[in-house]
Design a protein that fits this description.
Distance between the termini: 34 Å
Helix content: 25-40%
CATH class of the largest domain: Alpha Beta
Strand order of the largest sheet: 3-4-17-16-10-9-6-7-8
Shape: globular
Structural class: alpha/beta
Radius of gyration: 23 Å
Number of strands: 17
Largest sheet: 9 strands, mixed
Number of helices: 13
Order of helices and strands: EEEHEEEHEEHHEHEHEHEHEHEHHEEEHH
Strand content: 15-25%
CATH architecture of the largest domain: 3-Layer(aba) Sandwich
Number of domains: 2
């Protein structure tokens, strides 16, 4: 059995108010979602006299911690853009208004900068009319930013404005900051609920089956790989090279390959490859089929590049451009061989990030927002809304950010990718 993990969710106190919601089924606090879905693993716990690890189930509660008539809520959006951010903002605002009668909802501009008075960003009052159509646009109406802000001053701002709830929409770094805000608020004895909605186009948050925007990203990435395949087929020794998002996790690249199944090489951060190995394999592919499609995640092959030594405002190491590197090296290699090569390079990353959410993600964002509101109104804090085994869950932020989710190269996903591309297990 794996190391014991604490799935307990912190609460601000006793729930003494009855929900104004009507016409819906309510979730019992005893409802849980199992971490494991296979029977043999579950039996291991039961045979040892232990309860299998489980998540608290998300959903509306009959009893609330907050009096809806006296609640003020804030929303921040941080980090890079991702399809569906506006959808989540809209879902939170409309759920607070229609389900609970809460109208004091404010958006803090440009991420956590909005909680730093010295930045001078005034909060935006988010009304149902204001957010009515924002789900039809990509990006975020609140703006975003990277970088660290002073936790104590941020909590000072929240306390001064009388905020009861802070919804933090963002990835790993955002949720770490949310955890720090929650810790400081609890230290001060503030009745502040801090709820995270995990936003990462890379799908790399632990204990999340998928994150919003990922399905849209894969759908859009498929357009790029389909174009690369057409270009490759349209020329003698044609090669389509596509760079996709994926800093430390290759989920977008891998899923796009499975959706398109016209890709011949998939390069991800989790699976090492060598330049010589790739060039040799590409030579063989072109000799047999006269065309090839390569998909590379942005974080793959960083050992082949000179380290930039730079970091962004959030402290993330700036990656070398593996797409341009491979483009130039492949062209130079075949030129040296005296072999004709027609290579087309496609990098659609920022077009994908700024897209409107597709129908699947739109529905997903709606329910993520609703469940975030339900969790907050019941006094839960220091948690993110999760999605596991096709059920919405509550996950402690501390557990979710402990490590990034990555592709298991011995697991089924990567095995399916290898079966689809036909590439060797190791390209060395």
């Amino acid at each position: 059995m794996e190391q014991a993990q604490d799935f307990r969710i912190d609460r601000l106190g006793e729930c003494t108010f009855t929900t104004p919601m009507r016409g819906t089924g309510f979730m019992d606090d005893r409802s849980h979602i199992l971490l494991h879905s296979d029977l043999d693993t579950i039996r291991t716990y039961l045979d040892a006299g232990e309860e299998p690890p489980r998540f608290e189930a998300a959903g509306p509660r009959q009893q609330l911690y907050f009096d809806p008539a006296r609640v003020a809520c804030g929303i921040v959006t941080c980090g890079g853009l991702c399809p569906g951010i506006n959808n989540v903002i809209r879902a939170i605002v409309l759920s607070l208004h229609h389900h609970y009668g809460v109208d004091e909802v404010y958006g803090f501009r440009y991420g956590f900068e909005g909680l730093e008075p010295r930045c001078g960003h005034r909060p935006l009052h988010l009304t149902p009319d204001l957010v009515e159509h924002i789900h039809e646009m990509g990006g975020t109406i609140l703006g975003s930013s990277r970088g660290h802000q002073d936790v104590e001053r941020m909590v000072d701002t929240l306390a001064r404005l009388g905020m009861s709830v802070l919804f933090c929409i963002g990835g790993d770094g955002t949720q770490r900051a949310a955890l720090a805000i929650n810790t400081e608020a609890r230290r001060r004895g503030l009745a502040l609920s801090v709820i995270g909605i995990p936003k990462t186009i890379d799908n790399d948050i632990s204990f999340m089956q998928t994150t919003f925007g990922f399905e849209t990203a894969v759908s859009e990435a498929r357009l790029a790989t389909s174009a690369a395949h057409a270009e490759a087929l349209g020329a003698r020794n044609g090669v389509g090279l596509v760079k996709l998002m994926g800093r430390e996790s290759g989920f977008i690249a891998a899923s796009t390959v499975l959706v398109d199944n016209q890709v011949n090489f998939c390069l991800i951060p989790e699976a090492r490859f060598t330049l010589d190995g790739l060039l040799t394999a590409l030579e063989c592919r072109l000799a047999v089929r006269s065309h090839a499609v390569i998909v590379v995640a942005e974080g793959a092959g960083q050992d082949l590049l000179t380290a930039t030594g730079e970091c962004d405002a959030s402290g993330n190491v700036k990656l070398g451009d593996i797409g341009v590197f491979l483009r130039d090296r492949i062209r130079a290699h075949f030129k040296q061989l005296g072999v004709e090569l027609n290579l087309k390079y496609i990098d659609p990353s920022y077009m994908i990030r700024s897209r409107q959410a597709n129908p699947h993600d739109s529905a997903f964002c709606l329910l993520m927002g609703h469940n975030a509101v339900h969790a907050a109104m019941s006094g839960r804090t220091g948690m993110i809304v999760g999605y596991w085994n096709h059920q919405y869950t509550h996950v402690p932020i501390a557990l979710a950010v402990r490590e990034r989710k990555r592709i298991d190269t011995d697991g089924r996903v990567w095995s399916s990718v290898l079966a689809t591309t036909g590439q060797a297990t190791e390209i060395v």
